[in-house]
Amino acid sequence: MTGTTDTITGMTFQPGRTALEAVGLGVKYRRRRALEDCSFRIPAGRVCALVGPNGAGKSTLLALAAGLRRPTAGSLTVFGGRPGAADVRPRIAYLSQDKPLYPQFTIADTLRMGRELNPGRWDRAAAERMVAEGGLSSTARVGDLSGGQRTRVALALAFGKRPELLLLDEPMADLDPLARHELTAALMGQAAEHATTVVIASHVLAELDGICDYLLLVADGRVRLAGEVEDLLAAHALLVGRHEGPGLPREFATHTVVEARATGRQLTALIRPDGPVPERWRVAEPSLEELLLAHLRAPGAPALLAPSAEPRTPHRPRAQGPSQEPRAVA
Ligand SMILES: Nc1ncnc2c1ncn2[C@@H]1O[C@H](COP(=O)(O)OP(=O)(O)OP(=O)(O)O)[C@@H](O)[C@H]1O
Questions:
Q1: Ligand 1 in contact with 96 (CB < 6 A)?
Q2: CA 285 – ligand 1 centroid, Å
Q3: How confident is the model at residue 205 (pLDDT cuts 50, 70, 90)?
Q4: Bridge partners of 51?
Q5: Is the distance from the beta carbon of residue 58 to the nearest atom of ligand 1 less than 6 Å?
Q6: CB of 54 sitting under 6 A from ligand 1
Q7: How many domains, the chain?
Q8: In this structure, what is the dihedral angle of CA atoms 290, 294, 297, 303, given to the nearest 10 degrees?
Q9: Please, which pLDDT band fits residue 148 given cuts at 50, 70 and 90?
Q10: CA 40 to ligand 1 center in whole angstroms
Q11: What is the 201 CA–ligand 1 centroid distance (Å)?
């Protein structure tokens, strides 16, 4: 496999291949708009953080990518195909927030089901390792497990499928810190070993730092930031300086101000600099958490797509007809 190795994640990725591409993507639930005119691309082999406030559209986006829902406008493709298509679906593993499992099954029954549902691609060793590392007995009933233990079994099913695209909807929410740490390591190991593309929705911003090399920030159904974490961080600057009177300092006029906050006599601003910043400001590159928090607090800030996140398919808006109405989840 030809590709470049990421220095943070150790993963091999192929910048030319596209895992996910959205063009003018929209979803409406009856009258409610969950996603609107979203266009972005996630290159294959990336570990992408999907971030946004409650109700931003993250779960909707993951359900679309898993082929469980259809867009009401635009398109979303996975490895160039329709997510629900017979040749694409086996390449995707999706772990929803509610992690559906059969409570009456034992862990062994559950893994056997995984093997039967994924003939020819089931990685028994990976699935069993995931269960064993949690100290779980294969004879334990799923219904008797704690929330975190069920998450582990659900992840074992997802890993066992040996997916090319792993979609995780807040997978760590009910795990204790140690289990989170272990599962993150297992996830990264799997992803690095098999060059899996991972899209992971999470509200725990600190947890994403160091795991993810790609970012998709959505707010109010729209894409706000998309691209390599490194590039997005480098495109921003955190300024700290003296607050002199009301309003934004005049020297900010040439820059894009994402957010500016005054605390007493101090002003802290996250900007996208366009040219030099006067010396009176202390300038630092923001952390991922600072970048995300500033954008979450300032939903009106202009969106930014890195070149690698620009879709390659041209956007041709179509009139919406009855055939584009929402359909039931498969
Ligand atoms: N089945 C549904 N029927 C009607 N509206 C829905 C449905 N599912 C989601 N929505 C609405 O669509 C919008 C996006 O929801 P979604 O669950 O995708 O957001 P989210 O970013 O995953 O939120 P959270 O972080 O709270 O999980 C919200 O306004 C939500 O109320």
A1: no
A2: 33
A3: confident
A4: 217
A5: yes
A6: yes
A7: 2
A8: -130
A9: confident
A10: 20
A11: 13
Distance between Cα 32 and ligand 1 center (Å): 9
Centroid of ligand 1 to alpha carbon of 215 (angstroms): 20
Residue 15 has pLDDT above 60, yes or no: no
Mutate to test the pocket of ligand 1, among 59, 64, 199 (most ligand atoms within 8 A of CB): 59
Kindly state if the Cβ of 60 falls inside 6 Å of ligand 1: yes
What's the ipTM?
Answer: 0.97
Residue having the nearest C-alpha atom to atom 3 of ligand 1: 29
Residues 259 and 311 in one domain: no
Q: What is the pLDDT of residue 172?
A: 82
Residues 26-44 as b/e (b if ≥16 CB within 10 A, e otherwise) read bbbeeeebbbbbbbbbbbb
Q: How confident is the model at residue 239 (pLDDT cuts 50, 70, 90)?
A: very high
Whole-model pTM: value is: 0.88
Range of the domain at 241: 237-284
Residue 327 — very low, low, confident or very high, per pLDDT cuts 50/70/90? very low
Asked if residue 325 belongs to a domain, the reply is no
303-314 per-residue burial string, b: 16 or more CB within 10 A, e: under 16 = ebbbebbebeee
Classify the phi-psi angles of 19: left when phi > 0, otherwise alpha if psi is within -120 to 50, otherwise beta: alpha
DSSP single-letter state for residue 189: H
pLDDT at 321 over 60: no
63 in contact with ligand 1, CB cutoff 6 A: no
> Do 118 and 265 share a structural domain?
no
Which CATH number covers residue 126?
A: 3.40.50.300
